[in-house]
Structure formats: C-alpha cells, structure tokens
Specification:
- By secondary structure, the chain is of the alpha/beta class.
- It contains two helices and eight strands; from the N terminus they run βαββββαβββ.
- The chain has helices at about 20-30, 85-95, and strands spanning about 10-15, 35-40, 45-50, 55-60, 80-85, 100-110, 115-120, 130-135.
- The strands form two sheets. The chain has a four-stranded mixed sheet with strand order 1-4-3-2, with helices on one face.
- The N and C termini lie far apart (about 40 Å).
- The model has no long low-confidence stretch (mean pLDDT about 95).
Length: about 140
C-alpha cells in the first residue's frame, strides 16, 4: 500500500438545532470566533468558526444544504480539542463558563500516541466535546 497525502482534518461540520445558541456557546466556552457566514436568499445556513487552530462549521438543522452528511442531526458528533495547558486549567475554564463536566479528568491516548488527560462535556445540542491535554501536570 502506498502512502497517501492526508496531512490532517481541515474542518468538521456540526449540526445545531439553534445556530445562534450553539455559536454563543462556542464563542464563550471555546473562545471561537465567527469567520464566515453562509447565507442564501437572506437565510442563514451555517457559520464557519475558528477556535485556536481548529475550524468548524455550525450548520442550522434542516438548512436544505445537500452536500452534507446523509442524516445531519443535532447531538450526533463527538469532538476532541487539544488543550495546550495543564488539564486543571481546562477544568477551571469550564467551571467558570458554567459548563458541567460529564467525565474526567481521565487518561486518554492522543493521536500522537502520547498519553494525556481529558475532560468531557456537552454543548447545547448534547454533542460530546473533549479537551485533551498533554501538558506536564507536575
């Protein structure tokens, strides 16, 4: 088998029941910023957001876009964001935002093969989100 030229995942799409509510959550908790809005005939279809080095699109459920997953559903995604500081700072940040931690901190193996610590929480549509830290806790 020959090597293929995949470098990394460029972006993901998240389906939201209420795009404004979800974007406010991501702005608050991930400190994401809206970089582009997709509008057709005056109707907001999706927003492109950046949080650190990650990019994601928040799609309004039922927006009629055909180039999408077969069954785009709010609450159907599980995303891990790399946290570039000790996991305790992620926990403190989530608490300060009023976000409930559903699990963690607990050990997790990163895409690099290294062991880190993760905390898990949910967005307003019940998507599972994770902060994974490889930072030295000592």
């Amino acid at each position: 088998m020959s090597d293929i030229a995949i470098a990394f995942i460029d972006h993901i799409a998240i389906t939201a029941a209420d795009i404004d509510r979800s974007c406010r959550f991501y702005e608050s908790v991930l400190q994401a910023r809206i970089v582009h809005e997709f509008v057709k005939d005056g109707v907001l279809l999706a927003r492109q957001m950046r949080a650190g080095g990650a990019m994601f699109n928040v799609h309004k459920a039922g927006n009629g876009v055909t180039l999408a997953a077969a069954r785009p559903t709010p609450g159907a995604i599980d995303i891990c964001f790399r946290w570039d500081a000790p996991i305790q700072s992620a926990i403190e940040h989530l608490i300060s935002c009023g976000v409930i931690i559903v699990e963690g901190p607990c050990p997790r193996i990163a895409s690099s093969g290294e062991t880190g610590m993760s905390v898990y929480f949910r967005d307003p549509d019940a998507n599972l989100l994770e902060f994974l830290s490889l930072a030295d806790e000592s």
